[in-house]
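the two lines:
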Amino acid sequence: MCRDRLNNTYAQVMYDFSAEPGNNELTVKEGETVTVLNQNVGGGWIEAQNSRGESGLVPEDYLQVSVCDDDDDGEWDEEWDDARSTGGYGETTGEEEGEATGRNTHTHMKISLNKFAFSKIPNPEVYLLAKLPPKGKDRLAIYMGDVGPVWLYPQSPLDCVVADPKKGSKMYGLKSYIEYQVTPNTTNRPVNHRYKHFDWLYERLLEKFGSAIPIPSLPDKQVTGRFEEEFIKMRMERLQGWMCRMCRHPVVSNSDVFQLFLTYRDEKEWKTGKRRAEKDECVGPMVFSLIDPEAPELDIIEVEQKCELFSRFTKEMDDGVKDLLNVGNIHWKRCTGPLRKEYQKIGKAFQNLSSVFNTSGYTGEATLTDALTAAGKTYEEISQIVAEQPRKDLHFLMETNNEYKGLLGCFPDTIGVHKAAIEKVREGDKMVAAGKINTQDKGTMAKRISIMCYSLQAEMNHFHSNRIYDYNRVMQLYLEEQIRFYETVRGGQEREGSMKR
Amino acid sequence: MCRDRLNNTYAQVMYDFSAEPGNNELTVKEGETVTVLNQNVGGGWIEAQNSRGESGLVPEDYLQVSVCDDDDDGEWDEEWDDARSTGGYGETTGEEEGEATGRNTHTHMKISLNKFAFSKIPNPEVYLLAKLPPKGKDRLAIYMGDVGPVWLYPQSPLDCVVADPKKGSKMYGLKSYIEYQVTPNTTNRPVNHRYKHFDWLYERLLEKFGSAIPIPSLPDKQVTGRFEEEFIKMRMERLQGWMCRMCRHPVVSNSDVFQLFLTYRDEKEWKTGKRRAEKDECVGPMVFSLIDPEAPELDIIEVEQKCELFSRFTKEMDDGVKDLLNVGNIHWKRCTGPLRKEYQKIGKAFQNLSSVFNTSGYTGEATLTDALTAAGKTYEEISQIVAEQPRKDLHFLMETNNEYKGLLGCFPDTIGVHKAAIEKVREGDKMVAAGKINTQDKGTMAKRISIMCYSLQAEMNHFHSNRIYDYNRVMQLYLEEQIRFYETVRGGQEREGSMKR
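prediction for all of em together
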C-alpha cells in the first residue's frame, strides 16, 4: 500500500457515496483522495478521513486503496500486540504490510495489476506448446459424471478444525503472535500454525492451482471486532471457513502442499516440505499438464461457448451477491441503529405516559398504567431483539455471501487464462503460416485447450454443487431464525395483549 | 394568517430541525422564516419553502404560523371546490381564513395572544364580585362521587352519528359546499350541517364554557388526504370524533346550544335558536354562577394545591402525548418509507440471485431457486405488510393522541382563569383595606373560588375517566393489531420455511 512519510495509507474514491446521518459514515465524491484510517472495521467498510479532516465509514467497494510497487518485504510478523498498543486496528500491522505481497482482495488485484505474476493473467502458452514432463503420481483425475466432467472426489471427505488460539512470542518476548491449532479428521493429530503459515499456504495454492481453480484470499482485511479477543475469535472463524472450503476441494485437499500443512509431524518435515513446495515447477498453467481426461476432444467453438457461459454466470452471480451484501449491510445498520433507537423511544414514550398517569391522583387506573408500562417494556425488548437479530440470522447469510464474493472475485483471472488460451489456439493457422509452430504443434494445442476446458467444466461443476449446498443451508438457517424472531416478538406482544384484557 | 401581496403565508421556525434524507423533509434553523406551501399534508407536518427555494416537510410543532390582527372577516364559505382548482390544499381556503377569527390550535392561540376575548385569560373578577342573576333552569349540577366532585351524568349517554356528506351549492351553483348529516340517538332524526355550522357551535361552546371546560378546536388543519373524497372522509371522521367527545360531556351535551344543533326541526327554529345563543350573557367566567355544589367551602390553600396539581398533570401529559406523537410520526415514516424499500430490496436481491442460479445450466437446483424466489416474494410481501401496518394500528393511536393533544392544549387557558381568580382572592385583604370591596364581598369571593374549584375538580374527574377509557381502548386495539402483524409476517415466513424443507 502507498504510504507517505507519516505512514498514511491513501485511497481513491471510485463512486459518489452519501453518508446516512447518525451512522458514522463519510460522504465522498468520485475522484477524491482520502486517508485510510482503518481497513479492519469489518462488514465491508473502511474508516477514512477526507482532506477537511472529517472522518467516517465508506463502503470498501467505493474505494481503491493505493498499491505501490516499491513495497516488497518478504518477512513480516503478526505484531497485533504492538499494533494494539499504538492505536488498534487503525494502525497498519505487519500483516497488512504483507498484503502488498499479494494478499489483497481480488477486486483490488484486478484494478491495480501489479508486478506479481499471479495477479496478471498467466500466459497459457507455456502449457499449450510445452514439452510435457513425464507423468508423475500427482495426476488430477477428471471423469464423466451425471452433470458432465467432474473432479474425482475422495471416498471420505477431508475436514479439519481450527481452534484453540494461543499467544506465542519470540525475540525474547519482544514480538508476540497467535498460534492456531489445526486438526484434520484424517490423523486427528493437531498441528500448530501461525497466520503467516496460512498465508504461505495460500500463496502456494494460488501459484500452483490459480489457473485452474479459484483460490479465495485469506480472510484478513474483513475481520471485525475492536477488541483483541473478538478479533482473534473472528479471524479464527474465518480461517476455519477458508480451510473448510479448501478441504472440500478434491484437487486442493489432495495436494502435497495442503497435506503437508495439515499433517507434518515435526519442524524438520515442515521445513523440508516447505522447501520442496517452493521449488515445485508444475505451477501456473502447467497445472493442466497433470490432467488427462478420458474423453473425446472438444471443438474450439464448444470450448469457447462453455468459457463464455461460465464467465457470464460468475459475473452475474458476483453482481447478485454484492447486491445482497449491500442491502444486507444497510439492513444490518438500520436494525442495530435507527430501528433499535426508534423502538426504544416508543417504549420510553409509553412508559413516560404511564408515569404521568400514575400522578393523576385518580383512583382505578392501575390496570391502564400497568398495561402502558408493560407495553413500554415490551417495546424496549423488541428494540433489543431487533438489534440482536442481525447477529443471529443476517450474520451467517452475510458471511456466506462474503465468502462467495471472495471466491467469485477469483474467477475472472481463472477464466482469463482459458480465454487467453482460446485466443492462442484461434491464432494457430497464422502461427503455422508464420513458421512459429508446425501443424503437429497446432494439433497439440487443440488437444490441450480441450483438456483445459474439461478442467474448467469440472471446476464449475464443483462450484455449482458447493453453491447449491451452501445456499440451501444458509437460506434454511436464515428463514428459521427469521421465524423464531417474529415468534419471539409476537410472543412478547401477546403476553402484553393478554395482560390488558 | 399573515400573507404578503403574493398571498403567501409565512411561518417562524421555533426549533432547529434536521431533515432525514430521502423523506422529503426540509432542514430549518431556529429563527428562520419560511413560506408555508401546504398546511394540510397531515400527520403533524407542514410543507414549507426556505429562502433558498428548497422545499420539504417540517413538523408543525417546529413552526409558528403568523397571525395578523387585521384579518377579521366574519363571513366565509367552504370554497374547498375552488381551492382544489387553484392548487389543492396548499392554497388557503375560506375556512382557513376563518381560523384567524379564533379557530387556531390552542398552542398557537397562546403564543399570539390576539384581540379575541376568549384567547386571553378571561378576567374572573366579573364572576367573583358580580351580583348574580336569579337562578334559572340551566343549573350545572355537581355532586360528590367516589372520586370526589363530579358533574351530574345523564342516565342514558347522548351520542350522534355524522354521516352522508353531500355536496350542496349556492349562488346559482357558483359556490359549492359539503353538508353532513348529524343524527342524535335521542331523536334518531337527522339534521344537516355545514362545516361552518360546526364552527359556529364551537365558538358558542368556547365562549360559554371555555373558562370551566376545555373545548377542543375543530379538526380543520390536521386533515390529511390529497383527493377530494379522502379529504371529505377524513374531515367527517374527525368531526364525528369531535361530536362524540362533546356528546360525552354532561355539561356540554345538556346545553341549549348543543341541543339546538342536534335537534332543530326547521330553519326557523335553527335561526331563532342561533340568535338566542348569540345573545346568551352567561358566558365566560359567569358560567360558574350556574354552579352551586352542596359541599363545604374549600380553604384557599386547598384550592391552590388542587389547581397546581391539575396544571402540572395536564402539562406533563401534554409533553408525554407530544413525545408519543413525535416518535409515532417518525416510525410511521420509516415503515412506509425506508423500511418498505429495504424489504423490497432484500426481496429483489433474493429473486435476482434465484434468476442467476437458474442460468447455471447445472441440474438439480430447482429446489434452491424455488426457495430463493419464494423467500424473495415473502420479503416483498413483508415490505407491503410493514408499509400498510401504520394505517392499521398506529393510525388509531395517533388519532387518539392527536385528539388529546388538542384537548390538553385548552387546559392552560381554563386553568389560567382559576389561577387568576386565586390571585384575586389572595389580594382580598388589600382590596378591603383600599376600600375597593367590603368584608362581605371578601367572603363572597372566598365562597365563589371554592365553587370554581369544585367545578375544576369535576372537570378533571371527567377528563380522567374519559382518558382511562380512551387509552385502555386504544392500547388494546393497538396491541391486538401488532400481534396480528407479527403473526402475519411469521405466517408468511413459516410457509416459506416449510417449503424449503
